[in-house]
Amino acid sequence: MNHIPTLSEIQEAHERIKPFIHHTPVLTSASINQLAGCEIYFKCENFQKIGAFKARGGMNAVLSLSPEEQEKGITTHSSGNHAQAIALAAIAVGTKAYIVMPSNAPNIKKNGVKALNGEIIECEPTLEARESTVQQVIERTGATFVHPFNNYDVIAGQATATVELIGEVTHLDVIMAPVGGGGLLSGTALATHYLLPNAEVIAGEPEGAADAVLSFQTGKVEKAPYIKTIADGLMTTLGDKTLEIIRKYVKDIIIVSDEEIIAAMKLIWERLKIVIEPSCAVPFAALLKEKERFKGKRVGIILTGGNVDLGKLPF
Amino acid sequence: MNHIPTLSEIQEAHERIKPFIHHTPVLTSASINQLAGCEIYFKCENFQKIGAFKARGGMNAVLSLSPEEQEKGITTHSSGNHAQAIALAAIAVGTKAYIVMPSNAPNIKKNGVKALNGEIIECEPTLEARESTVQQVIERTGATFVHPFNNYDVIAGQATATVELIGEVTHLDVIMAPVGGGGLLSGTALATHYLLPNAEVIAGEPEGAADAVLSFQTGKVEKAPYIKTIADGLMTTLGDKTLEIIRKYVKDIIIVSDEEIIAAMKLIWERLKIVIEPSCAVPFAALLKEKERFKGKRVGIILTGGNVDLGKLPF
């Protein structure tokens, strides 16, 4: 797709991926609502296939390719959930996934890709090396590159989490998501714009990867002043496509510290009894930080994933 | 109730407590099924009110009292989930809960009871002190004592988790639960006996609190050879009521080590993305230990609770 997805394209994406993904549950907690002073509906993408919402976007992008393109395989560079999403999608269409990963990627991530039959191609841990290695894969195999977020088919896929949330929970006033590269946030904002135009979309971003809030202000893809955060899924900058959508349809981006992220993450583990990764707690941390703003409202929060190293918990 | 609950008494218990408890979800995981070689349906009582199945039994026992009894209050001795269950049930009928707790009970447990308006009466950390302190409460207030497990109304309440599971998942071959005092296991066995008489009920018990497996053999309430296990919810011996039901309707009790419990717990956290307490992982550990026995079967497992100190995880 070469344009911002329309409502019907998002709905088509949803139909397309439905057989391959989970319709994830929405959880609530009376004690969290009491503490937060509003009604929160958590859309649990930590229960999604591969443990993260990324399964939606990767699946839609791969299913949207022509049979000829699919046959030659799919490639991407990622050390995170998008790598597994592409490997899963390649299985769904019976093709190969070539995943470029930095040589220092944790074994747990490599094993996740291998378990889904993905072929790992290691490279130096720099963006340049990643991109040139992907280029080599493309030249060798003819595989199609699927960008983790700056891709309209991926964005349409990520939007389907919000389509499900809005279809299930009525009268939401606010919908929240974290922002890294902005694929999920773009999709969330688009779906909300089309289906619930009076609701606000508000993002959370870590203080230690605060690029999106800058880009949001200047209108250019900015780098973060510094990168140091526990929310390791949110370290990337926006892309031109995600920036445009976010500038148009997102109301605000709230910055939170790692301490606030860890406290919010712990609350969700304790009260909802679910495992979420730190990146995932960012919008809830933002809500708790600016409680007054959300007082008495009905708030949907996309919980993005649950792939966390249990041996390295921050509490 | 002064007799083993009948099917209709269990069904009445279910109707009685429904407005006050959650109908908890059943979760599955393709990767866990692959690894275990069977199909497992996890009944997630970690999502229950107060974070544990105990809400069911406590609620049923308290709701079954006469208005005169309810008015005088409820008492129990417990430093665990049953304390919160009774406090919650007391709120439901608008009465007082007097919870006798050992003076060395962790603050997190005390705070849980206080948050539910329970009155804590501290005593020395011995069973004798607990019982005599409860006796004093009864003499002073006229409150009714609700035993954590050796009580038919409590057992009928715990049985309702299995009623829901069997109502939702067809053709189960085996239903599994952990065994501590045996309230949950008795309820599970009764509900299965009435509703799915061809299914087997198999329990898991920690090696470091292996009293039930002995009692199961001898027919008397036996003590464990030694007590040392991470499964802190399963340290008590059976009661006469639970022993009788378990001897009649349970097929087998499988013993597992703490290492096996921790490995099973970690797998559930990683794959199902949910928070469960160690006691809760015991039946799944038992299944993994005797995989061949469960091969290709449809197995329901009651996940009992998710109240775990995140600061003291075993991995």
Automatic annotation (TrEMBL), chains A, B:
Keywords: Pyridoxal phosphate
UniProt-listed CDD domains: Thr-dehyd
InterPro entries registered for this protein in UniProt: TrpB-like_PALP, TrpB-like_PALP_sf
Coiled-coil region list: none
One Pfam family recorded for the sequence: PALP
Keyword Signal belongs to the record: no
Span of domain Tryptophan synthase beta chain-like PALP: 18-305
Cofactor(s) needed: pyridoxal 5'-phosphate
Superkingdom as given in the UniProt entry: Bacteria
SUPFAM superfamilies per the UniProt record, alphabetical: Tryptophan synthase beta subunit-like PLP-dependent enzymes
PANTHER family: SERINE / THREONINE RACEMASE FAMILY MEMBER, SERINE RACEMASE
Name assigned to this protein: Pyridoxal-5'-phosphate-dependent protein beta subunit
